[in-house]
Predict the 3D structure of the following.
Amino acid sequence: MKMMRRKIVLAGMLAPALLSVSGRVAAQASSFYKDKVININVAGGASGGHTRYARLIQPYLQKHTGAREVRITLMPGGGGLKAANYIWRAKPDGLNIFFGNVSTLILAPLAGSPGATFDPTKFVYLGRATSEPRVLCVGGKSAIKSIQDVQKLGRPFLYPSQGTDEDFYTMAVLADALGFKVKAVTGYEGNADTALAVIKGDGDGHITGWSESMAPIKSGDKHPILMVNSLRSPDYPRIPLVSEVAPANKQATVRAMATILETHRSYIGPPGMDPQAVAAFRAAVTAALKDPGLLEETIKGNRPVVHMEGAKQQVLIEEITKASASLSPILKAAVKEIQ
């Protein structure tokens, strides 16, 4: 009994000390970025969806980090690989952060892409800003009206590509799962460029984010024929999901692809990033994406926020990467065709 009383007294003495230590750590994390300059390296060009989201969130990140400045640096190239490789080699002080598609980081190494010099599980995931369906669109004046028309095309489906990004890999998986041939037409810069090619008829179609295609779909310049997502769009419920048209023996493949794509636009830090910086940036992302001012802007601009906290994202990315190994042969074959 005396021993038990001693343990209780000791625990009571230690509790305030432990709380004091954890409080100091939390305080240090919350003030980590005060008066510092953060550089957000965006994996895209000036007119791309990544850039528009990064600029939308920028002032709120500055507000909630307490940073003196949050800069945006555009790093287009390699479908996001240029920015990813830069962050992979960056000093882990928390002052250089990647913003772009996590899916490219997962898919490129699975494809054996020579441009992927990193291990996606070693990055530090700081929070997802949004996730939206990827949609396969054809030109508004195209004779192709459905995914069944693509399957019966009798020739390769031509699609303008900006490089080996997540859309390039998605087309490879769709072609394999649904039994049609594809041919990438490379050399395009960003979604705006590939969209114009599709609208003009220089390509049959392309895959893009839902918010980026809404305006040309509503104007009739583009026509959506397939969603690569887990759920149908409430705005366009008649657009089929790939899982609804894929044969039984390809269900696992297309579901794995949809899960990867749903990781979407996120903030990512270099391996070994300072723990205080990690805690501070994750907290700031969460606060920024819940800020009433930002939420009001997202509604006005039709830029939905679908947040996932960085710690949860870290675990999920590792699980997804391991579970997606079966995609590797399909992706490697696609890369080989354009080399």
